[in-house]
Amino acid sequence: MYVARKIAELRKLLCDEKKKGKSIGFVPTMGYLHEGHLELVRHSKKDNDITVVSIFVNPIQFGPNEDLRSYPRDEASDLKKLEASGVDYAFLPTVDEMYPEELLTFVQVDRLSEPMCGAFRPGHFRGVATVVAKLFNIVQPDRAYFGMKDYQQLKVIEKMVKDLNFPVQIVAVQTVREANGLAMSSRNSYLSEEERKQASSIYRALLKGKELYEAGVRDAEAIKNAVYDELSKVPTIKVQYVELRDAETLEDIKRVEKPAVLALAVFLGKARLIDNIIIG
Ligand code: PAF
Fold this sequence. Notes:
single chain; 280 residues; Rossmann fold; Pantoate--beta-alanine Ligase, Chain: A,domain 2; 2 domains; 6-stranded parallel β-sheet; 3-stranded antiparallel β-sheet; 10 helices; 38% helix; binds pantoate
């Protein structure tokens, strides 16, 4: 595995691969890799000749009171995992390499960025879309892989790619879960053993909502209330939002008539956790 830290270096190497007719799969990450990331890598390796993984904790997607400084990092362990997974190129730029001067150009995906996490993390999706656009321009992948745990991010990136004609196919990959249902996330490292056990109620709550739908309930309030009820059984869980929205437009819905995303964000100990399930 080649580890590149400079944009020009990676571009040259990937340009040579393209000249040889190789297809390129790309997995953008912020590191502290877990099975969820490695599942994205497995998909990329299956679909492409070459797999590139970036590790970059992107400062512009964190709010002033968020966890940019404490975000978990372990470069040595990440590189070992990528090497063992058969990744061809790891790209680990510094902040100065990605943002050498004041950035005046941003990618803003309206509407899709506004509700759900966007309502509580102003500027977050603008930061995500901007860095992903930069990474796409650097790597120029044929396919890029995103986990469904970050469902709103996935929809924002899909729309950006469509609106701005990026020649890349976005591949959505199912959320990978711990045995107790907890969606894998680098931020799970903030949880104590006890909190990890309590966190199993997050997915259980989403499944309760889905069960109601499957039993014939279509009223969005009733489904969301079932999720709240389940979460309220664990007093340490503080709910930020539970939403049921159109799975494509992310518009609020009153009844589930088309595929919808049942999504939530909660605080547990030091962690803010998100998860979702598709119903309908
Ligand atoms: O999902 C993430 O890890 C990040 O938001 C991403 C897509 C790598 C952009 O920084």
